[in-house]
Amino acid sequence: MQNIENLIFDLGGVILTLDMPRAEQHFTALGVKDYNTLFRSGNVSSFFKEYEVGSITDAEFLGSLKKLAGLPLTDDDLIAAWNAMLGHFPEERISLLNKLKNKYRLFLFSNTNALHLTNFRKAYADTFNGNVFDDHFEKAYYSHTLGMRKPDKESYEHIIRENNLDPSKTVFIDDSILNIEGAESVGLKGIHIKPGMSILDIDL
After folding, report:
1. Do the domain assignments include residue 154?
2. Residue 41: which pLDDT band, with cuts at 50, 70 and 90?
3. How far apart are the first and last CA of the chain?
4. What is the rounded average pLDDT of the residues 3-15?
5. Helix or strand or coil: residue 86?
6. Is residue 1 part of a domain?
7. Of 68, 83, 98, which one is at a domain's C-terminal end?
């Protein structure tokens, strides 16, 4: 890509695969009814977003999740089901990041949470000889530690400002069109990873 110096990647659905049916299976096996009504985007309770920006603790999140499920579930059961949506890191995507690091400044910006972060960092280390996932990037931004989430304009503006990025020379890559639109609203160039696509399909 001409005149591009910086790449900002989303994580889930872009670098890390996601398995939403697996999460549904786990919660259903625990006795949760109407999973889609309770957990699908647009229907989720406000505490999900609160957890995603770090305004509630793990214990508070699990307590709210337990109430939402309406079942006397253990924390371990809930954590296992919650993390079930996280897939794996395809080696070819990681190889691509290694190559791109020689050409661009790389950043990560993920809407995530503390329990997921612990899980996928461990999964990466287990898969790639104890290496640290965040080392692929000049800086990795996670919504729950940043205190902001996509697609809020302030979150993109913070990353641009903190790293002295020229938005016109920066590409934001995400599988959510809403997040792409948020990025483009502050001048970033967006690439939408549509269903069936991967970062390997982009001419970078």
Report:
1. yes
2. low
3. 6
4. 97
5. strand
6. no
7. 83
| In contact, 107 and 162? CB cutoff 8 Å | no
In the chain, DSSP assigns E strands to 6-9, 105-110, 139-142, 170-174, 189-192
Task: Domain count for the chain, please give it.
Answer: 2
What residues contact 40, with CB distance under 8 A and at least 6 apart? none
Total-model pTM: 0.94
193 plus 95 within the same structural domain: yes
**Which pLDDT belongs to residue 40?**
66
d(CA 59, CA 27): 18
| Cα 198 from Cα 14, distance rounded (Å) | 6
| Residue 2 CB neighbours (<10 A) | 4
Taking only the tens place, the pLDDT of each residue in 131-189 is: 999 999 999 999 999 999 999 999 999 999 999 999 999 999 999 999 999 999 999 99
Residue 161: give the domain boundaries.
6-18+88-201
